[in-house]
Amino acid sequence: MNFSCPQEELISSYKRCRKIGIDPSITLPLVILNPEDLQKKIHKNKELIEAFHMSVEEDWVKGEYLFLLTDIEGYLLDVRCNTEEKKCIKDSGFEPGVSFREESCGTNAISMAMRLKREVYIRPKEHYCDIFKKWHCIASPIIVENGEIVGYVDISTIDKKIADEVSMVIKLLAEKIATEYEKIVKEKELNKIKIKLNDSQTKILALEAKGYRELDIAEALGIDK
């Protein structure tokens, strides 16, 4: 499965980066949320983060791969990886709240997945900024049942080539996160409905479901129609 970024899209991205004046030699991302805005983002996307944690297997985290989750705007929400790799990305400035948009860190897999709305693989030399020149990255939108994109997931390696099978893993991982996310959202919505209904309302709904008429329900429960 070929998720390589088309050459014309890469060239267009480089042009945009030059136009907005990004220095290719930057060593840290340029855009990061302040702590208050980051907490708001995390709260808003708590179901997505929960789904991400449920979907990334513990055995994967022990390996050499980095798993990154962003919201729909490209802000980093969470990272899963081993301790050694976590230190490596922290030294590069990639902590929750960092933006992966072009204006923050140039051409990268997440920014291109956001633009193309599909899986994208970016090799080290294809990145615009030096900050990514050792990174192999493959990113995918997380698409729920109604076709809405709720975030992006990225699998990366530093100084190591990504195995061919990861192109299939990213697609399956994005689908798994989307499925878990929808389950969590639906479950929370059902719980809200249950909380809002009092005992009488629950009994009324149960009788309505059995085909009872309003008058019969009122009589059976001893309440006014």
TrEMBL record:
Domain of life according to the entry: Bacteria
InterPro entries in UniProt: GAF-like_dom_sf (IPR029016)
Gene3D superfamilies linked to this entry: 3.30.450.40
Protein name: Transcriptional activator of acetoin/glycerol metabolism
Organism name: Thermoanaerobacter siderophilus SR4
The organism's taxonomic lineage, starting at the top: Bacteria, Bacillati, Bacillota, Clostridia, Thermoanaerobacterales
